[in-house]
Amino acid sequence: MFALDGKVCVVTGALGLIGSELVRALAGAGGLVVVTDLDHAACVERAGALGGGALGHGADITRPESLAALLAATFDRFDRLDVLVNNAAIDDKFASDAAHESRFEHYPLDRWRRMLDANVTGMFLACQTLGSAIAQRSSPARPGSIINISSIYGMVAPDQALYRRPDGSQAFWKSPAYPTTKAAVHGLTRYLAAYWGAAGVRVNAISPGGVENGQDAFFVEGYTRKVPLGRMATVRDYAGAAVFLASDASSYMTGANLVVDGGFTAW
């Protein structure tokens, strides 16, 4: 039930921390993976390393013409598309002025717009271009699957105390744009699940918890105390969820949000 058996799977943001693991997992389950991110050459290289007929093609999800070229390249190689994993997203990166700029009262409008453009509009455009192609060829007998990567911060507010140093100072605040964009993912997921259900396309979200990736020790310790399983995630913790939602094992799931957070949101 979990085998993908040659299903063609496009993964956006495929060169990132989680995206890199998702393409390995989908390919390992038998999927024909299309690796896409901004850097075309790196996508081609990553696809070559995967083997098994994977395709690498660079694309900017905020540009409709770039997504159209990605779709054309996918159909040129495989003549179909079965699974879309909308993983591409951005988060804030601050310089030395983070303590001021990351506060809600001072958060810059250009940052807000840039994150909405990448995390919400980009996902909308990817679904409009690539998801439509899935819907046109899907049926209840041959269903397609769209998987939108959200976050627990689309469900609950950030605990700003996690970013407070042991001495009580705070050089960074989790800013408002990322949680807002991830909450929007759930709305789009439910909308498309209802809209494309009759076409045989299942649309679900995954809400990951925090991945340990070189954060300060105080942050890791504080975060871990909030997790019933007692640790932050590794990228491998999300691979199985993606394979599950891409495969026939989840054939009666649509409009759902699969929370994979070690229990962070359970209390």
Notable characteristics:
267 residues, Rossmann fold, seven-stranded parallel beta sheet, 7 strands, globular
Q: What does this entry look like structurally?
A:
- The protein is α/β, with parallel strands linked by helices.
- It has a single domain (8-266), classed as NAD(P)-binding Rossmann-like Domain (Rossmann fold, 3-Layer(aba) Sandwich), CATH 3.40.50.
- Helix content is 40%, strand content 12%.
- The chain contains eight helices and seven strands; from the N terminus they run βαβαβαβααβαβααβ.
- The chain has helices at residues 17-28, 40-50, 64-78, 98-101, 109-137, 177-196, 217-225, 239-246; strands at residues 8-11, 32-35, 55-56, 83-86, 144-149, 201-208, 257-260.
- It has a seven-stranded parallel sheet, sandwiched between helices.
- Strand 1 (8-11), helix 1 (17-28) and strand 2 form a beta-alpha-beta unit.
- Helix 1 packs across helix 8 (239-246), helix 3 (64-78) packs parallel to helix 5 and helix 5 (109-137) runs parallel beside helix 6.
- The longest helix has 29 residues, at 109-137.
- It starts with 7 loop residues before the first strand and ends in a 7-residue tail after the last strand.
- The mean pLDDT is 96.
